[in-house]
Amino acid sequence: MSPLFSALLVGIAMGALIQRVGASSPRMILASLRLENIAIIKFMATTIAVGTVLVFVLGTWIPMHFDVKPLYVLGVAIGGLVFGIGFAVGGYCPGTCVVGMGEGRRDALAAFIGGIAGALVFTLAYTLIEPVFIRPMNYGKVTLASATGLPPVVVAIVLAALFLTGVTVLPTRRRATRDEPV
Amino acid sequence: MAGIPVSTPVPVGQTIARPSRWAVLGALFGVVSAAAIALYGPIGVSGTYPRLIGAVLRRITPAYAAANPYLVKMGSLVTPETMLVVGLLIGGFVAARVARTHAPAIERVHASETSTARRYGDAFLGGFLILFGARLAGGCTSGHIISGITQLALSSILFAAMVFAGGIITAKLLRGGD
């Protein structure tokens, strides 16, 4: 199966899962960020726990196409903060607004157009941004395994156990909220 | 599960016996995310936005597009990630039709969104900030938080911590009820 066709199928499955869990609903995103109903955060933590064990256990037999992002502290930290603010302002992320457009949400289209504008400003300002926020303090493609010297499969299992314990122990709803379906 | 009304108290034994919707769908997404890494590479979305801009600028102003180092770095729109984004659109459309759910045209999430125009304004501003932030950090919810932490990347753990710190504080500040 070609990478392009594989990615199309992965995207269709991902879009359907995001729609069914309610992550394309800005109301659900805000309920998570207000810590009123953290079902979407639990969904993400479960995804990571299952995925990390699968790739590192299966990776001992079959080749995996890993692609770790470099740790440039300033850009990653400030970018994450700006992303978090935007996440709370609009209730969408770059993928969920596309799923929302598929569902017929008009504010999702507004978020997508805003996203194009944000990416355009970044593109135009890249030569000013890169030397200040991306080039310095770049520690490369470090992982929890490479930093600790532990085998990746061990770290993956420990991380998955922590995440699965967290999603099991923490209450999904802090108090009786509205009629969100989960 | 979907069928349990929120307002009805559910016996404790029943909630333990039936896995939650987020748990089932999260586990499935974990399999999909791992399958992507096995088949071609980690899932990601936000890089498609500058690639789309690059594809347009290469048509209308090829000299600038060739001179912009970021557009050169991000490369062609013909890439698996673009197909994934097309898939998201199809998946959202099909899942909503099959499940017969009718998504609202807009969802107001802040007390300040007193009109449709203000909701569009918040959605646009939110979209602007998430893409600017994602491009600065080199990934978004899928590329950094999901597939980055799946690969145990320290940069993705830092990104996720900052996203939730910024998001939770902003959501609390923007409160005021709806």
Describe this structure in words.
The complex is a heterodimer of chains A (182) and B (178). Chain A is an all-alpha fold. Chain A contains eight helices and no strands. With 178 residues, chain B is mainly α. Chain B contains nine helices and no strands. Chain B is globular and about 55 Å long. The model of chain B has no long low-confidence stretch (mean pLDDT 92). At the A-B interface, helix 1, helix 2, helix 3, helix 4 and helix 5 of A face helix 2, helix 3, helix 5, helix 6 and helix 7 of B.
Spell the H/E element sequence of chain B.
HHHHHHHHH
**Uncertain residue ranges of chain A:** none
Radius of gyration from the alpha-carbon trace of chain B, in angstroms: 20 Å
Given the C-alpha coordinates, what overall shape of chain B results? globular
Structural class of chain A: mainly alpha
| Low-pLDDT ranges of chain B | none
* Global outline of chain A: globular
Radius of gyration of chain A: 19 Å
**Mean residue pLDDT of chain B:** 92
Based on the structure, what is the oligomeric state of the protein chains? Answer: heterodimer
